[in-house]
């Protein structure tokens, strides 16, 4: 018997307040904003609109908790228990969190259930397990001194997360920040506040002390800017656009030189050589790599770079897969593509499609808005051929279901095209020649290199980019570097 997720979604309680000092609170201004369901274009309900006053309140709460030591001085084994309990609660509330995620951002409920929520809980559990497994160091000194190298929590962390994977990106920041003993002020994207607010409530139930996690929905120019400029925020972690990332760097310089860690998108090259072992698998990954999550993925394989001798054959295979990935109702378990996040973003994606046509690229499929009768923001999977690297659709992050196909003759041209981007977040390379794979992967300037796959890795692998894709790393133990200070202590024994 199939589950009627639309019916279940209609009965779910929607969080609507800020969450500060362990409590639901109204915005000080009493302002709210409408939270829109991208699948229908209709209002889900009002959400409290935090601004600079609420940010001040939240930061003060976080600082008070940090200075009191209720979390920062808690034994690592006890912090571990709380974070693992939170992960267990996330599993227990998986359907609720998945429904909130799908209602908020328009992604298919099947993806929310099978990918977003389990991956988020796994992330929180992984960092919980890491709490009591990070050792400090003793320096190799001579007999006249004793030197220790220890990690300390950095203090108050601001986390500003995007709307494409709201819960997962939240956990990528919260997991290591909380494991290290910090307090956090989280600003979810205004388009996607629901799972962050519910997660904060679950965290309190799991035993996280009041004030350690505060959630302030609001807009970038008010709440986001206030966090960036706040003199009592020690570190800010951001995932989003390069334009906003550069603003946070400016805010840091204008305030207290807080550390700013950025993940600012990409334009992933997907390089397919003629000696690829399995062209059908590569074609499937090429389509999924750009159309999964409606193309709203920072590592979306948006540049398909195919060797000229197999291009026509390969594109035919990609088109076959694309034909099976058509938009549908996000609350239908059989839907593979949902809605784009909002009307403004949908129009931006459609504008880029027009730009591609005007630049001379050949439209092979898609290119239009679909499912107008549902009222949501749906764009058909779109594939361009005859794209040149200089075209805007090959250079700029579209963040939608739009694939640009380019061709190359030899290895040198492939590497040149792959690196011809301001971004360097991820890259894919398909070949049966292991020597070629290793040699060329070293020449591609990207933080994540996937050989014969798209989106490989797990929590043990760091995630981040080169160039204007940002700095620092999420995931793995390397993420703890962002949220800790290194203290050197020298004891003179002479």
What does this structure look like?
This protein has 494 residues and is an alpha/beta fold. It folds into 2 domains: 5-264 and 470-488, Aldehyde Dehydrogenase, Chain A, domain 1 (3-Layer(aba) Sandwich), CATH 3.40.605; 269-458, Aldehyde Dehydrogenase, Chain A, domain 2 (3-Layer(aba) Sandwich), CATH 3.40.309. The protein is built from 15 helices and 23 strands. The protein has helices at residues 5-10, 52-68, 76-92, 94-105, 109-130, 166-179, 194-206, 220-229, 242-254, 279-291, 311-323, 343-359, 392-395, 411-419, 434-441, and strands at 18-20, 23-25, 32-37, 42-48, 137-138, 145-153, 156-160, 183-187, 213-215, 235-239, 259-263, 269-272, 303-307, 362-365, 369-370, 378-379, 382-385, 402-408, 423-424, 426-430, 448-451, 466-467, 484-492. The chain has a 7-stranded mixed sheet with strand order 14-17-18-13-12-20-21, with helices on both faces. A 5-stranded parallel sheet has the order 9-8-7-10-11, with helices on both faces. β8, α7 and β9 (213-215) form a beta-alpha-beta unit. α3 packs antiparallel against α5 (109-130). The chain starts with a helix and ends with a strand.
Any key phrases for this structure?
494 residues, alpha/beta, Aldehyde Dehydrogenase, Chain A, domain 1, Aldehyde Dehydrogenase, Chain A, domain 2, 7-stranded mixed β-sheet, 5-stranded parallel β-sheet, 15 helices, 38% helix, globular
């Amino acid at each position: 018997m199939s589950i009627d997720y639309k019916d279940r979604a209609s009965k779910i309680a929607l969080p609507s307040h800020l969450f500060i000092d362990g409590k639901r609170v109204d915005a000080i201004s009493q302002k709210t904003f409408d939270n829109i369901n991208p699948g229908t274009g209709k209002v889900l309900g009002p959400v409290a609109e935090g601004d600079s006053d609420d940010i001040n309140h939240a930061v003060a709460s976080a600082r008070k908790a940090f200075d009191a030591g209720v979390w920062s001085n808690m034994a690592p084994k006890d912090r571990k228990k709380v974070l693992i309990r939170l992960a267990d609660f996330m599993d227990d509330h998986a359907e609720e969190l998945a429904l909130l995620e799908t209602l908020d951002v328009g992604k298919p409920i099947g993806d929310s259930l099978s990918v977003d929520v389990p991956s988020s809980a796994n992330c929180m559990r992984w960092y919980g397990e890491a709490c009591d497994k990070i050792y400090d160091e003793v320096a190799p000194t001579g007999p006249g001194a004793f030197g220790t190298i220890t990690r300390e929590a950095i203090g108050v962390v601001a986390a500003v997360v995007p709307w494409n994977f709201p819960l997962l990106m939240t956990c990528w920041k919260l997991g290591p920040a909380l494991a290290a003993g910090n307090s956090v002020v989280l600003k979810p994207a205004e388009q996607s506040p629901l799972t962050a607010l519910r997660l904060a409530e679950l965290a309190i139930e799991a035993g996280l002390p009041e004030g350690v996690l505060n959630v302030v929905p609001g807009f970038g120019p008010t709440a986001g800017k206030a966090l960036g400029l706040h003199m009592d925020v020690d570190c800010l972690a951001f995932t989003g656009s390069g334009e906003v990332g550069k603003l946070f760097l400016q805010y840091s310089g204008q305030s207290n030189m807080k550390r700013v860690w950025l993940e600012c998108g990409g334009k992933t090259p997907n390089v397919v050589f003629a000696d690829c072992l399995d062209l059908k698998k590569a074609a499937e990954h090429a389509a999924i790599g750009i159309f999964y999550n409606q193309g709203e993925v920072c590592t979306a394989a948006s540049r398909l770079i195919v060797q000229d001798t197999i291009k026509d054959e390969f594109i035919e295979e990609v088109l076959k897969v694309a034909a099976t990935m058509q938009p549908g109702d996000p609350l239908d378990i059989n839907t593979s593509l949902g809605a784009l996040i909002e009307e403004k973003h949908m129009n931006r994606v459609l504008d880029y499609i027009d730009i591609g046509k005007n630049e001379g690229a050949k439209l092979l499929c898609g290119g239009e808005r679909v499912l107008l009768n549902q009222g949501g923001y749906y764009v058909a999977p779109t594939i361009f051929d005859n794209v040149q690297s200089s075209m805007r659709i090959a250079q700029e992050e579209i963040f939608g279901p739009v694939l640009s196909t380019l061709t190359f003759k030899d290895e040198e041209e492939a590497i040149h095209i792959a690196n011809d981007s301001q971004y360097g977040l991820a890259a894919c390379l398909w070949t049966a020649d292991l020597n070629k794979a290793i040699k060329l992967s070293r020449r591609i300037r990207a933080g994540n290199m996937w050989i014969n796959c798209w989106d490989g890795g797990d929590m043990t692998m760091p995630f981040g980019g080169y160039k204007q894709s940002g700095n620092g790393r999420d995931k793995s133990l390397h993420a703890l570097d962002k949220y800790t200070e290194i203290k050197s202590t020298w004891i003179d024994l002479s």
